[in-house]
Amino acid sequence: MDIILETPRLIFRRFTEADAKLILELHSDPLVLQYLHEPLVTTEEEAKQIIRKTILPQYKMNLGRWALHTKDNNKFIGWCGIKLNSANNETDLGYRLSNETWGKGYATEAAEYTLQFGFDTLHLKRIIAHAHVQNTASINVLEKIGMKYVRDEVVDDIPVKTFVAINNL
Ligand SMILES: CC(C)(COP(=O)(O)OP(=O)(O)OC[C@H]1O[C@@H](n2cnc3c(N)ncnc32)[C@H](O)[C@@H]1OP(=O)(O)O)[C@@H](O)C(=O)NCCC(=O)NCCS
Q1: How many angstroms separate the alpha carbon of residue 104 from the centre of ligand 1?
Q2: Pairing of strands 148-155, 64-70
Q3: pLDDT confidence band for 11 (50 / 70 / 90)
Q4: Are 106 and 68 in contact (CB under 8 A)?
Q5: Measured distance CA(148)–CA(129) in Å, rounded
Q6: Among residues 8, 3, 9, 40, which one has the least CA distance to residue 24?
Q7: All domains of the chain, ordered by start, with CATH?
Q8: What percent of the chain has pLDDT over 90?
């Protein structure tokens, strides 16, 4: 297993094409996609394409969305990570957890350690994050990990709040 990072309760590892079932499960839940304006994934083949075309290419830059497992029972709970948006050269923090694992602080724990990893290990200078203006749970996570709100804007036709963290070292 390609482990990237550990937190007190979570292990981060790289996805492989063998994880299509896990992505299908997560990305086929309308509650999880509620604020994301993405089509629901309905087949394992579609999930495999997401892994191939969206997730794996980011690993070549040591960035990407990493699979999260709980340390206590090795359960897959979703993903978290930093992605390069080559259109504007911004590195973007994102996370997506299965709904039965919400409300346990896992997203905040994952996002906090990911941000630190981005600065300390990947030596990124600036990390941004967008959350749909109504996605209160996600906005709370970004505020709790200390990212600074900068503006409301429309990104890919979605009204979002944009947050930034700068590496001051
Ligand atoms: C956004 C998302 C990741 C937030 O998940 P979450 O579980 O609500 O987030 P948190 O990790 O902050 O946990 C929430 C609560 O768990 C509680 N909690 C329980 N045990 C805890 C613990 N050991 N440590 C910390 N918090 C704990 C906290 O009270 C916290 O709520 P509070 O900060 O209001 O007090 C989740 O809603 C999700 O995956 N949504 C779908 C995808 C999505 O929208 N992604 C974001 C795109 S911008």
Answers
A1: 6
A2: unpaired
A3: very high
A4: yes
A5: 10
A6: 40
A7: 3-166 (3.40.630.30)
A8: 95
Which residue type is seen at 20? A
Q: Mind listing the pLDDT tens digit for each residue in 75-123? A: 999 999 999 999 999 999 999 999 999 999 999 999 999 999 999 999 9
**Which atom of ligand 1 is nearest to 135's Cα?**
44
3-class SS letters over 34-82 = CCCCCCCCCCHHHHHHHHHHHHHHHHCCCCEEEEEEECCCCCEEEEEEE
The pLDDT value given to residue 143: 98
CA 122 to centroid of ligand 1, rounded, Å:
25
Best residue among 99, 128, 138, 144 to mutate for probing ligand 1, ranked by most atoms within 8 Å of CB:
138
